[in-house]
Design a protein that fits this description.
Blueprint: E1 5-13, E2 18-21, E3 29-42, E4 48-60, H1 62-71, E5 84-97, E6 104-120, E7 128-137, E8 142-144, E9 151-163, H2 172-176, H3 180-183, E10 184-196, E11 211-227, E12 230-245
Parallel strand pairs: 4-6, 10-12
Antiparallel strand pairs: 1-3, 1-5, 1-7, 2-3, 3-4, 5-6, 7-9, 7-11, 8-9, 9-10, 11-12
Length: about 270
């Protein structure tokens, strides 16, 4: 089964998009965008506050090249034709091993759907930043504090089967000619989630291995790491949970049942 993985972003460009051709015999390429999403919220004191999250977005195939060409000679702070972007896509994760510490590292980005991108010549004062993802709990939720200071953290692992990026944008006839084993790939994403305050009680009864669907805003934590001798910045993120689907209904520690299994053996493992 392919788990749910949907991202909606609405933000402003912070640098000119870059087009990179594929190597190692692959045709096509990818456009890399850096966008900022501004949002307003009320802090615990009830005061109005603002925060900005940054995200790397990639657009594969011909539509990515068209987007870079359309942006032209974009410069930060200049009177550019396009200032913002509204898009939908999927959450992605890169993993690698640090050559010095030999510890595992990870960074996150968004793979945009080429058919769901809209450029804005005005930009966005208040952006949009949401992730809806379904998967299994890696461990039992961990609770810290109590009352309004109560915080629950948990990690969801999500698997998705999808058409390989280098094949996206091709016609149905062209895709039909590609062998199934060469057409699809699978991505696994681990998302750290956080639910705070009185609503943290919604997670009572959830256990490791249960199938859940969560949604909320992407909270960013930027880190730097050396990759092949070059220092790069990576988005390490945490999902500020707005809802946990079906969590209130499940209090008996049984796994949530997937749609495919409801008519079959029942509980998913």
């Amino acid at each position: 089964m392919s788990d749910k993985n949907q991202v909606s972003l609405q933000g402003n460009f912070v640098k000119k998009p870059v087009w990179t051709e594929f190597t190692k015999g692959k045709s096509g390429g990818v456009a890399t965008l850096e966008i900022a999403m501004n949002s307003e919220f009320k802090n615990r004191a009830g005061e109005k506050a603002e925060k900005t999250a940054f995200m790397t977005v990639k657009v594969f195939g011909p539509e990515g090249k068209k987007l870079v060409d359309k942006m032209g000679s974009w410069e930060k702070g200049a009177n550019n034709t396009f200032k913002g972007i509204d898009l939908k896509g999927r959450f992605r994760m890169d993993t690698w091993k640090d050559k010095e510490t030999q510890k595992g590292k990870k960074g996150f980005w968004v793979e945009a759907n080429p058919n769901e991108i809209e450029l804005s010549n005005k930009g966005y004062v208040n952006g949009k930043n949401s992730l809806n993802i379904a998967g299994r709990l890696v461990d039992n939720p961990v609770t810290r504090g109590s009352g309004e200071n109560k915080v629950v953290t948990f990690t969801v692992v999500s698997n998705e089967i999808y058409i390989k990026p280098e094949l996206q944008g091709k016609s149905r006839e062209e895709l039909d000619a590609v062998p199934v084993k060469e057409k699809f790939d699978q991505k696994t994403v681990f998302v750290e989630c956080l639910l705070s305050g009185k609503r943290a009680g919604e997670l009572e009864g959830l256990k490791k291995g249960m199938l859940v669907e969560v949604g909320g805003g992407i909270e960013q934590k930027v880190s730097k790491a050396m990759v092949d001798g070059v220092e790069k910045s990576f988005n390490n993120v945490q999902l500020g949970v707005a809802y946990v689907n079906e969590a209130k209904q499940k209090r008996k520690n049984e796994p949530l049942v997937s749609k495919e299994n409801k008519k079959g053996k029942g509980k998913s493992k």
